[in-house]
């Protein structure tokens, strides 16, 4: 019975098919080049005619990396003028789809060295680290275009935060902040509004960032959600005076936890969380007063004082639609993006100053731009129901 079973070596079959496809591409491209040369000469090879405009002078070989592997091209040479083909750009060594794939891999957080290994595995040709870096240079203009694009429509909810990344400058390792803003539009979808480098999270840096967003068209902001950055608070009240501010409850919890002994965290945390589990504003305010008193009764004076001073800043969300409360009282939307930025920039090690554009967080903004392309699609569920 076993003798009647046909066994297929899948690996060899794939290699054979890949070889056939590569050979077909090679023959097709060479035929197209030959026909293009005949058209430029206005005559076929060895054809005698008075209408001939040029003469062939042998050919030269060049390699082209395609998605099917590396192919060998026989490029015609002409006597009276250089052969300028419309099929393949002069000096191009890779098909456009291959170049796009290389950039996509790097954007996805794959290290340059790893990209070399992947290209050798997929296409049988190893692409150097310098080549990958050179390809990335081509999209720097698009990054700037994305960062300075006009902002259309209104964004009632805006989340802001800063993330610190390492950079190399003058032979020293220092930290540089990347200020990021995500907005929720009128129809409830989130979108990355902007990213900007700042030496720190000072008032001047935040003000410059917010002014840039406003000049690009950001309007209709009703609520900012962020950690308690004093520089941001001062700047936001100047640039967007009508917008309210919600202090991120997660960051507030972290600040409170630093004031609570570890052996009391298990009993104190349920109390703190209960503040934000109430059904309406009146019940929440009553619960807040109750929680503060219980913290004092537990002997957590420092935590109670910090809670008393800061809890009101975390309850701004109560002035907005109930169905939005859970999403607008924390900065979790931005924290997730920050984790992704760290993951994708970790392979770089440190950020280098770009020689032409002149700002050091280029690689971070590069990855943010890539994420922005997918931050709003037809198939993506709404971040919130449409704000009222």
Describe this structure in words.
It is a single chain. It contains 14 helices and 8 strands. With 388 residues, the chain is α/β, with parallel strands linked by helices. The protein is 44% helix and 17% strand. It has helices at 10-41, 96-107, 112-123, 129-137, 140-147, 203-215, 230-239, 249-257, 265-274, 281-297, 301-310, 325-328, 332-345, 362-372, and strands at 56-66, 69-78, 157-169, 172-184, 190-198, 223-226, 244-247, 351-352. The strands form 2 sheets. Strands 3, 4, 5, 6, 7 and 8 form a 6-stranded mixed beta sheet that branches. It has a two-stranded antiparallel sheet with strand order 1-2. Helix 5 (140-147) crosses helix 14 (362-372) and helix 9 packs antiparallel against helix 10.
List keywords for this structure.
elongated, 44% helix, 14 helices, 388 residues, 3 domains, alpha/beta, six-stranded mixed beta sheet
Task: Report the biggest beta sheet as strand number plus sense, adding barrel if it closes.
Answer: 6 strands, mixed
Estimate percent helicity: 40-55%
Strand content: 15-25%
Name the average pLDDT.
76
| Number of DSSP helical runs | 14
Tell me how many strands there are. 8
Overall structural class, as computed from helix and strand content, comes to: alpha/beta
Based on Cα principal axes, name the global outline: elongated
Order of helices and strands: HEEHHHHEEEHEHEHHHHHHEH
Would you identify the regions where 5 or more consecutive residues have pLDDT less than 50? Answer: 90-95, 355-361, 373-379
Task: Provide the number of structural domains.
Answer: 3
Tell me the radius of gyration: 30 Å
In whole angstroms, how far apart are the ends?
Answer: 72 Å
